[in-house]
Amino acid sequence: MGTRPTRHSRGLLAGFLVALVASAGCFVGGVSDPQSQEPGGEPSAASPDPSATRADGTTSVEEFTQDVADAQAVAERYWTAQFRASGERFQPIRRITAYQREGQVSCGGQPLPRNNAVYCSQGDFIAYDVNWSVAAFRQIGDAFVFYLLGHEYAHGVQVRLGIRYDFTIQQELQADCMAGAYLGDSVRAKALTLAEGDLEEFREGLAAVGDDPDQPWFAEGSHGTAEQRTDSFFRGYEQSLKACGLS
After folding, report:
1. d(Cα 153, Cα 203) in Å, to the nearest integer?
2. Smallest Cα–Cα separation from 28: which of 244, 247, 223, 241?
3. Which of 36, 62, 156, 157 is least enclosed by beta carbons within 10 angstroms?
4. Number of domains within the chain
């Protein structure tokens, strides 16, 4: 994906109380790879496996770092415009931080696990396992980075809007929809440019982070199956925020 000068699009946030709400929990959602929670060893961020590298040459840590920065900038501009259209002021998420080891970063005293990315409401930050994220970036493509950041940023927006659900799957699928809206609207506004294969990379990324089909939908921490997550994301991508239950 590539970035271009931003033209703000209008959103559907009118009617919500926009405030930074202190969450009772530490995590407001995350994105993880359920099939690699206990891998044999950490992927190296410095030496890509050529057999796992996409043909588009997505390999370098520098490109990954730039994509994270670009995704953050586009997300901040997008949500600032949405809140402004509703007569409200958007407060960007305080920071985005990378970690390499379990427990290196904590959220409310709870150590963050490997192979994950989360939004921490207590501290208002996004944290991600850089080894896992770079490995996914190399295997899936750069579009995964924009989805990953968009999903976690959506959790920060949910907190600012005071959105709470009884089941985590509701929170997660809405965040997928909001990530899709942020990306689809940004492409339509020409703030982002899709490269060949980016849509398929979104599908691959969503398939990689879907729950096991046997996991109960009501279980704590459920995010949705690959099919559910893909449906939610592309509903937002194609129909914008009106498809995400924000009005």
Report:
1. 19
2. 223
3. 62
4. 1
